[in-house]
Amino acid sequence: MRDAIYRHIDANQEAHLAKLRQYASQPSVSQENLGVEQCAQMLVRDFQALGCREAEIAPTPLLPSVWAYYDAGAPKTLALYGYFDTNVVGSGWDHPPFDAVVAPRAPHKRVLYGRGANNKQGLIAFLNALSSIKAAAGQLPVNLMFVCEGEEFTGSPHVPLLIDRYRHHLSKAHGMITPGPCQNAGGDVTLALGNKGCLHIELEASGEKWGRGPTGGPVHSSTMVVVDHPVWRLVHALATLYDAKENRILVDGFYDGLAKPTAEDMALLDGLAARYKGREASAIPALGPGKVDKFLNDLTGRDVFERYCFQPTMNINGLRAGYTGPGTTLWTLPQAAYCTIDHRLPPDLDPEVCCQKIRAHLDRHGFRDIGIKVMMSVGAQKLSIKDDLAQAALRVFKNWDIDPVVWPRRGASGPTGSFSQMLGLKVLGATGMSYASSHSAGNEFLVIEGDGKVGGLAELEKSYVDLLYSYASYPNPF
Amino acid sequence: MRDAIYRHIDANQEAHLAKLRQYASQPSVSQENLGVEQCAQMLVRDFQALGCREAEIAPTPLLPSVWAYYDAGAPKTLALYGYFDTNVVGSGWDHPPFDAVVAPRAPHKRVLYGRGANNKQGLIAFLNALSSIKAAAGQLPVNLMFVCEGEEFTGSPHVPLLIDRYRHHLSKAHGMITPGPCQNAGGDVTLALGNKGCLHIELEASGEKWGRGPTGGPVHSSTMVVVDHPVWRLVHALATLYDAKENRILVDGFYDGLAKPTAEDMALLDGLAARYKGREASAIPALGPGKVDKFLNDLTGRDVFERYCFQPTMNINGLRAGYTGPGTTLWTLPQAAYCTIDHRLPPDLDPEVCCQKIRAHLDRHGFRDIGIKVMMSVGAQKLSIKDDLAQAALRVFKNWDIDPVVWPRRGASGPTGSFSQMLGLKVLGATGMSYASSHSAGNEFLVIEGDGKVGGLAELEKSYVDLLYSYASYPNPF
Questions:
Q1: Pick from A225, A324, A329: CB nearest B344
Q2: Which of B223, B251, B365 to mutate to test the interface with A (most CBs of A within 10 A)?
Q3: Which stretches of A330-427 are DSSP H helices?
């Protein structure tokens, strides 16, 4: 049966590529509200064509998402999270980002260029794979519940709302997958057993809230000598939060309950240290575009990986007050200052509890007036290498003769954390056998025909097929 | 003779207004390089028409300034600083900013609307006054050296260069005036005996300079757990510079040499305290657009004025790192963070010495890598109430039956500080009897015919005439 499905995939490659190109031509830029609605409608039609029992636009207060439910009458049910919105176009394109250009790109025979080539096309290729399974095998090996979001690039503000809306279905799912290509340029496969959670906050010091300093607008900078200063206030409040020499969060109790790596984690960390000895920086996913020559505290080897996976962050990603343009023409005493901070939190640190501790810390240090606005709060997700989903993926890799790089977790976070937090779902990251790049940069592409090291569209679809059958038949794989 | 000049001014009001309107129609927006060259050429022609021995464009590396020298064969010589560039247009205009609209504006009979109505028109009205003196009296009572700048709104970067270029002339001047309207909406006249100096710097913490953290671009925020962080570094460096509770600059030796108020200053401060008892905030010039309900340390009365005039500032006017737009879509560990700080320095604190002390302070605290870029460094200017220029102005006020508010100094700074610093020139602020408003906002205007409380164009020109004669004839006024 697997051979029949593979043959169907091979025989229909040009039709499958045409489907990808159809989506590549449809913009879905959520930050600009460009085409997201149309793209959602295309998806609904394709879920209907696949034979989904339910397929509908799931409206949210902002941009639409898509819900679909395929009932295969199978004993196992997988939820699927995908997002079909894209980043803004930006610069650096040699091929127009919505022209669906397919062209050679050394060393690959063919790639598909376009904004969304990573995430949107990874999802469409999955739908192609499903249609081949249905055509060749008659039925899918698992039931599938699709939650396809149109707001990932605006911070996934309504995923919890979607979960609540479809909770009666989703609570029956046995696990969650997130289809997409997972190879790097050299063909290596990385599997991360979960993500960190995220608490993203904005701190505000202002004359308005403080009851001191300027209100209603900035005042002339010369008056600073007699007027209280919200920016200096924020600077001093920030300085109490984080020790930049010891690289330690200073909020009382912030680290309470933080778990140490388990024996399973330790074995994985040892594996990473051995694999990346002397080139640890190259191992950290998604480091770029910047370059890092040495790690903090001059960490090397396993210590880098342990800290990366098991310690929380308190990262200032934005700081703004007064004039923030080039040069300075407006000299004022600003009426407010803002700092946005994202915290990446291992599973044992609850984002909401961490936020309460930051509030209590600021209060104790005399900064009751400094406001905290929660921009995002999402839980971590945690998968054991012994879990069915991980084992299903590892057996596919083994079958494909691939030795994956397995991380105890990613340092980043994702909206799938909400599914773990609200439904207790285990989530498997991307495991598809292809390579996509420049997720948010110019010339974003997905490999359609690879160079031997990385797969193309056919391999991507086949690996999806294998994952579903591997999971469906566990503990007895095909 | 004074009556003859006054009569000439009255008889030529429409011609004088036409001259103002000609300049009002000529944009001179330095930040946008819009019309500055043309406006400079107009000025040169008008200086030539006045009979200046020298009148020329004074080229600078960026925008042109104008130099003119009128040799009246008089024993006394005054330098004049003016600026003919304007701020950008911005919003809030009911009358097009370059249409030279003259219209009633309650309670005033007529005002001239236009960008530059404050500074540019103050200068042109002065030229009108000079032409009336020449027509009615045959000759000016003093020699005049005009330094008219076209880059004030870009920070006066080339004033020192202009001073060097015309030093052979300027070193012979006995003092400097800065023509312009000086009344507020109620007709009150404020005279400030000098300005503070200014040191404007930009601090930069970056992976590049530090040799730690990201270089060549930001990295993903999740990597912060193992990567050094330039923004936290800047926060901690800043926290060492200023105590926001005690409102005190913490740089070692920063206050060294700071003079206490003299007996003359004390008398002026007492005068201010008595005049503004219970409404100190309304007294501070140029506080707005923001509002200040209480001063730092809960200062009241004379303490406000003493601190305002005699203490230095360290004002953060801009803070930027990472994403500084609304919301947050780019979560990174920024490769650099910047803070712009302006210091307003009483005459005893040299801007360059202060900058060296900040450098030494950062070095001592382990922040050798934090860069300091000097954006502006200009000295203070200091005038005694006993100086000829101050006395000349006070006699005009007395003659006009005005009781001026006299400040020991302004808390702000200005490019005229360079003339004091480089030539030792005493500088008199604006003393013209009219009222202009909205210097950098919409609907900027100059009163042409006042309401009885404030003067119009004729009074402005007459007060210029009186100042020149008052100064020329001191100690025996007209």
A1: A225
A2: B223
A3: 351-364, 388-399, 416-423
**Largest Cα span, chain A:** 81
Report which of B338, B342, B319, B292 is spatially closest to residue A221, judged by C-alpha positions: B342
Pairs of CB atoms within 8 A across A/B: 288
Which residues, 6 or more positions from A213, have their beta carbon under 8 angstroms from its beta carbon? A206, A207, A227, A228, A229, A230, A233, A333, A335, B292
pLDDT (tens place) for every residue of chain A, 478 residues total: 899 999 999 999 999 999 999 999 999 999 899 999 999 999 999 999 999 999 999 989 999 999 999 999 999 999 999 999 998 898 889 999 999 999 999 999 999 999 999 999 999 999 999 999 999 999 999 999 999 999 998 889 999 999 999 999 999 999 999 999 999 888 999 999 999 999 999 999 999 999 999 998 888 899 999 999 999 999 999 999 999 999 999 999 999 999 999 999 999 999 999 999 988 888 886 666 678 888 999 999 999 999 999 999 999 999 999 988 765 555 789 999 999 999 999 999 999 999 999 999 999 999 999 999 999 999 999 999 999 999 999 999 999 999 999 999 999 999 999 999 999 999 999 999 999 988 778 899 999 999 999 999 999 999 999 999 999 987 654 4
Give B294's contacts in chain A (Cβ within 8 Å): 212
Contact indicator for A370, A237 with CB cutoff of 8 Å: yes
Nearest one of B427, B430, B416, B426 to B460, comparing CA atoms: B430
B67 phi/psi in degrees, rounded to 5: -115, 135
What's the whole-model pTM score? Answer: 0.89
In angstroms, the CA A323 to CA A333 distance is: 10
Domains of chain A: 2-195+380-473 (3.40.630.10), 197-258+311-378 (3.30.70.360)
